[in-house]
Amino acid sequence: MPNYYKRTPGSRTYHNFSEETLENALNEIRNNRLTYRQASDKYGIPISTLSRKKNKLNLNPHGGQTALTSTEEDNIVETILFASDWGYPFDREEVKRLIKSYLDRAGRKIKIFKNNKPGDDWYTRFVSRHSGLLKPRLSENIKRSRAAVSRTTINEYFNNLELSLENVPPQNIINYDETNFIDDPGRTKVLVRKKNKHAD
After folding, report:
1. Cα–Cα nearest to 192, from 124, 149, 131, 126
2. What is the spatial distance between Cα 25 and Cα 29, in angstroms, rounded to a whole number?
3. What is the band of 181 on the pLDDT scale with cuts at 50, 70, 90?
4. Is the pLDDT of residue 84 over 80?
5. Is-contact 139 198, C-beta < 8 A?
6. Measured distance CA(191)–CA(89) in Å, rounded
7. Contact present, 80 and 90 (Cβ < 8 Å)
8. SS3 74
9. Are 10 and 41 in contact (CB under 8 A)?
């Protein structure tokens, strides 16, 4: 059974892994010993960070800096992927509202965003920066059988949620209003994992 990486107490909190740990994870991915998800679970590094580092994206950005840090964008990507995996992919407006909610709760003001809400240009660049993981797809309704949720699924969700929120400051937790979720999304474009053929 493999040994899994655990964060050293008192280490830096803006990322919970060392450069050596990151390089070990990347080597296992490059040598096809682990998938991105397996490496993320084993080493505690976000999938989006592994993808960006492996493909050397945004390591030395030119021009102006992005409104959010790389770590913040990685966390946003993880949230979008998580929602998509559960059958609730975010569309353009939902991503923009998610960013606004995060900034408002963090007490930050981004001058280039109107009322802290990013515009369409920012959204387009954001998706482009993370094109290795995110892919816009036309939304589709899901079958009732696939939408059913069992007690086991619910328990697994809250167990994973408890682990995910461990050592996370309360001000960094976003409460996304579930009333925005709909079961008839129409034919709008939503963000899903790049490998997915359908937005369901």
Report:
1. 131
2. 6
3. low
4. yes
5. no
6. 6
7. yes
8. helix
9. no
Question: What distance in Å separates the CA atoms of residue 84 and residue 75, rounded to the nearest whole number?
Answer: 14
CA distance 173 to 175: 7
DSSP characters over 129-187: HTTTTEEEEEB----HHHH---HHHHHHHHHHHHHHTTT--GGG-----GGG--S--TT
3-class SS at 53? helix
CB distance 200 to 147 below 8 Å? no
CB 64 within 8 A of CB 112: no
- Regarding pTM above 0.70, the answer is no
C-alpha distances (whole Å) from 193 to each of 48, 74, 84, 85 are 11, 14, 7, 8
Task: Read off the tokens for 5.
Answer: 């990486």
Interval 99-129: pLDDT, tens = 999 999 989 999 899 999 999 999 999 999 9
- Phi/psi of residue 199, nearest 5 degrees: -95, 80
